[in-house]
Design goal:
The structure holds 2 protein chains of 2 kinds. By secondary structure, chain A is α+β, with helices and mostly antiparallel strands. Chain A is built from 8 helices and 5 strands, in the order H-H-H-H-H-H-E-E-E-E-E-H-H. In chain A, strands 1-2-3-4-5 form a 5-stranded antiparallel beta sheet. A two-stranded antiparallel sheet of chain B has the order 1-2. Classes of the chains: A alpha+beta, B mainly alpha.
Chain lengths: ~200, ~260
């Protein structure tokens, strides 16, 4: 009897404590909505100087995206052949590239809004959140977010625009740059450096 | 193109041009996909491209042609034709494709898809004023792009290799077979040819191509500006888009990459 009570008490405890650390589809959806709203409200202001827009983009990126996972996946198997100095330089350059690309994209946005649709769990701790970007001057764009629950936080690890994964495209592109330059990771770093300078 | 056809050169040329304009620089229209690890369902980074040097040369040519001709025309179309007219044209063009949608759905064993495509055709042709208004789409019968290349993929044919066709743009060995066979079996092509109205067929293809290109104005401009290797980016995007289409854009299909956890 006592055992049984203990068991019940224990299960109640589990039941109460479990949701605190866990994420569900609803929280993944709320997360994406918050990301979309924040990005569209804080980055699309036309009067924003480019530097300020980049700073805001970087903050947003660090807050909402698992840039480490994204960067490593994008480099693919070349990560292992890179020296640790190359790895850390790559991470910095990769972040800069994402920041400048997205800052300029958001600088051109106006009148868009994000409408979150459904969400479903995938794998051990990821969620796919479907959404649409509604535009005033064109048909809606389907955007699917892959969100990972990690260390008690949700972070975006991939964005698929009309079924094209930004992560896969980036990875294929980096692989092509490296492959065309004798398989050297340093060639990719050189390309990224040039891009940043130019 | 010449690999798969034995027709007289003139015919091939005009057909090529027609499809070319149809698909010109259309990253998403047809092509190659399914470079996927069958065990993990993960899209791998390798796309079979043994002809890469030739493909890159053709790609450079296509890109130049796009910049000087196709993109400006698409820009003018997109800017000066009223949005409702563009939508009407797109609906009309899609409705004309209905026989292919029904046939390919059936060939893929997708009875439901064939039913939807048939219903869409009947509803839009009548209530939608000859296909100009997508009444069916507004009532939950969504358009689903189908073509013979997808059917061949469903039947188990691999992509073969990646191929960039002059003017036409990205394709694959498999999808060229599909595109060519569809063009020859196209009732509109056969009928217009028999009745000496070939221009109708070419106009249809040109308008379709223009509409496709116009829809991709922003996407392609963005890719051109932001990619480190534009060729590789297009090749990747194309393979992914094709794969999604083969899976009928089913959100539950294993098209999402399996992304490992690195810090464990």
């Amino acid at each position: 009897m006592l055992n049984r009570l203990a068991l019940i008490a224990f299960s109640c405890l589990l039941f109460i404590t479990a949701p605190a650390g866990a994420a569900d589809t609803a929280s993944a959806m709320a997360f994406v909505q918050s990301l979309g709203d924040t990005a569209l409200s804080s980055l699309t202001d036309k009067s924003l100087p480019p530097k300020a827009r980049e700073d805001r983009t970087r903050n947003l990126l660090r807050k909402y995206f698992d840039i480490k996972t994204i960067g490593r996946f994008a480099l693919g198997t070349h990560w292992k052949t890179a020296t640790s100095a190359e790895q850390s330089e790559y991470m910095g350059l990769f972040e800069d590239m994402i920041v400048s690309t997205y800052a300029s994209r958001f600088g051109e946005y106006s009148g868009q809004s994000l409408e979150v649709g459904k969400s479903r769990p995938i794998g051990k701790r990821d969620f796919i959140v479907n959404s649409k970007i509604l535009q005033t001057d064109g048909p809606p764009v389907n955007v699917d977010w892959q969100v990972r629950h990690k260390n008690g936080k949700l972070k975006v690890i991939d964005v698929q625009v009309e079924n094209v994964s930004m992560l896969i495209t980036q990875r294929n592109e980096f692989a092509a740059v490296i492959q065309r330059n004798g398989g050297e990771v340093s060639s990719l770093l050189e390309t990224l450096r040039k891009r940043k300078g130019g | 193109m010449t690999r798969c056809t034995t027709q007289p050169a003139k015919k091939i040329l005009s057909l090529t041009l027609a499809i070319a304009i149809t698909l010109g620089a259309t990253v998403t229209a047809t092509g190659c996909a399914r470079s996927v690890d069958p065990h993990t369902g993960m899209k791998t980074s390798s796309i079979n491209d043994p002809l890469e040097p030739v493909n890159r040369a053709v790609f450079t040519f296509n890109n130049a042609l796009d910049i000087v001709l196709i993109e400006p025309v698409a820009y003018v179309y997109s800017t000066f034709v009223p949005p409702f007219a563009q939508t009407g044209i797109r609906n009309f063009m899609r409705n004309l494709r209905s026989p292919f949608l029904v046939a390919n759905s059936l060939l893929q064993g997708n009875i439901n898809g064939a039913g939807v495509a048939t219903a869409r055709f009947l509803i839009n042709t009548t209530a939608g004023i000859g296909g100009l208004v997508d009444v069916a789409g507004m009532n939950g019968l969504a358009y689903q792009q189908e073509d013979l290349g997808q059917t061949l993929a469903v039947w188990g044919m691999g992509d073969g290799f990646y191929l960039v066709l002059p003017v036409i743009g990205p394709s694959s060995a498999r999808d060229i077979i599909g595109t060519t066979a569809e063009a020859y079996g196209d009732p509109l092509r056969i009928w217009t040819h028999k009745t000496g109205r070939d221009w109708v067929y070419y106009t249809r293809n040109a308008v379709e191509g223009l509409d496709n290109r116009a829809q991709l104005l922003d996407a392609i401009a963005d890719l051109r500006r932001n990619s480190l290797d534009y060729y590789a980016a297009v090749r990747s995007a194309y393979a992914q888009k094709r794969r999604a289409l083969i899976h009928n854009e089913n959100p539950d299909a294993p098209t999402t990459p399996v992304i490992p956890d690195y810090d464990e």
